[in-house]
Amino acid sequence: MNTKNITRVNRGAGAHWVGDGFPVNTMFSYDTQGPEISPFLLLDYAGPANFEPADKPRGVEKHPHRGFETVTIVYQGEVEHSDSAGNSGKVGPGDVQWMTAARGIVHEEMHGRAFTQKGGTLEMIQLWVNLPAKDKMSDPRYQEILSDSIPVVDLPGGGGILRLIAGEYNGIQGAARTVTPVNLWDMRLKSGHKMDLSMPEGHNTSLLVMSGKVVVNGAENLGAKELALFSREGETISLEIQADSVVLLMGGEPIEEPIAGRGPFVMNTNEEIRTAMNDYAYGRF
Hints:
This protein has 285 residues and is mainly beta.
């Protein structure tokens, strides 16, 4: 078996707030792990956190992005989006928002109004996906992927289900349109089962355990809010499920280009970052 070996395990990521609505743990970032995680740039896991009822929605008010995509997966709660390209929408449990900022967009992400009034538990993922240089200044794009449109696959032996947000599994295509080859699998795994999953040779791959307990490749125990990074070499990842688990498996073809980033802008050179800052300051997004 051609195994993808574990190269790093991230545990106990530092918690911080994004705006006043999203208490997050940053599970990986291009600042420290760029080549290991490409084409991904950042993974924030928000919650689970309880919010009391309120009159004013919490969240992140208007802010810019350029040069990459944001992927928001909602597990609990509700988020409303609006942007300078005229897109708006609401995503709830099971839904995904895939926003391609590309040459520049200004948007806001706030708790849904109904969720704000009722209060409740918020749990979500935000993943940043890089764009190749040739696509960084393309037109922005927005995909609202509702839960019902995401293919659901039964895993072998009754081991659970796989929601195919992006990529391919056993010939089935995922719901999202991606710029570069990306697999994004949201899985619910049942205790007592074992399984082998395959990711392409040469792709960077990472596995986040959101809840439960999983033994990876027969050796590494992962619990809640723990993430494993894997070698590009190999294809197979073996899992032994020791408790009912929610797991996110991510893989993609690396983008072998320089990364220059500052806050909400990720480009290839510092000059491009300065241009992005000026364009935003002068209202060119």
